[in-house]
Amino acid sequence: MLTRSTHVFDDATRVTAGDSRWRGHTSDDYWAFVGPFGGVTAATILRALIEHPQCSGDPLALTVNFCAPIAQGPFDLDVRLVKANRSTQHWCVELSQDGGDVATLATAVFAERRPSWSHQPVTPPDAKPFEETLPFAKLSMSWVKQYDFRFVEGELKVGTPHAAPSSAYSKLWISDRVPRNIDCLSLMSMSDAFFGRIFHAKGEMVPFGTVSITTYFHAATEELAAEDITRVLAVADAKIFHRSYGDQHGELWSPSGRLLATTTQIAYFKA
């Protein structure tokens, strides 16, 4: 197992507790087109929940709605426990800056994952091992440089727009550029690390941004720790692009063939 030390991802998602709100800060290491990479923003929100003294259980679902741009600098997280029972906790988190309007609105469910009947009817995708797959040539965005993308199928190719729409499907390995053991925080961030499906379909970069993302977690904290992995096998696809918005859905698998997380989102595009 890797020795735990300060990692650029942990620096980027660090939060501190205040009197009534938690405090975070954007990271230049995870910057996207015009704001922070949404996956790291979501992971920061999840960290605030995990570290909250009232938190109980494991992350089950996190939905993040990106309401307005987030500027470089500090931000506040208003964290509220909405409802709790013996099995689940329901949370609401509002991200704002300088006392302004809400820029990001999130809801989360945590659950006590008790022993039960288990069945995984879906089969893991076939793929070459990580070590036998070539790294993807990096794009200029800083957040992309923090990951090691290795496409097995559906590599992103932009430059000359396609005469007709191509497949939006991708299969790839995702790892932190500096290896870090996979936990719920990295799963949350990696669930948003798929490049916009419209880039694949059109063969060009167009204005794009996630509006809402929901990620479901299918492994408890101790189960993830037992996997002892630093990479996931990911698949992503889209079903429709229509009138400025398109969907995107994905799966994150352990190298051993365990489904760790599923995700879906709706994104804006201009094309």
**CATH class type:** Mainly Beta
Strand pairing plus helix content: what structural class? alpha+beta
The CATH superfamily is known as: Acyl-CoA thioesterase, double hotdog domain
Q: How many structural domains are formed by the residues?
A: 1
Q: What is the element string, with H for helices and E for strands? A: HEEHEEEEHEEHHEHEEEE
CATH architecture: Beta Barrel
CATH topology: Porin
Work out the helix count: 6
From the spread of the alpha carbons, the general shape counts as: globular
Measured as a percent range, the helix fraction is 10-25%
For the sheet with most strands, the description reads: 13 strands, antiparallel
User: Mean pLDDT, nearest integer?
Assistant: 95
Uncertain segments: none
Distance between the termini: 45 Å
Portion in strands = 35-45%
Oligomer: single chain
3D architecture notes:
The chain has 271 residues and is of the alpha+beta class. It is built from six helices and 13 strands. It has helices spanning 8-12, 38-50, 142-145, 184-190, 197-202, 221-227; strands at 16-17, 22-25, 58-66, 74-84, 88-96, 102-111, 147-153, 170-176, 208-217, 231-237, 241-242, 245-253, 259-269. Helix 2 (38-50) packs antiparallel against helix 4. The mean pLDDT is 95.
Defining key terms:
271 residues; alpha+beta; 13 strands; 13-stranded antiparallel beta sheet; Porin
Question: Can you lay out the helices and strands and say which pair or pack?
Answer:
Elements: H1 8-12, E1 16-17, E2 22-25, H2 38-50, E3 58-66, E4 74-84, E5 88-96, E6 102-111, H3 142-145, E7 147-153, E8 170-176, H4 184-190, H5 197-202, E9 208-217, H6 221-227, E10 231-237, E11 241-242, E12 245-253, E13 259-269
Antiparallel strand pairs: 1-2, 2-4, 3-6, 3-9, 4-5, 5-6, 7-8, 8-10, 9-13, 10-12, 11-12, 12-13
Helix pairs in contact: 2-4
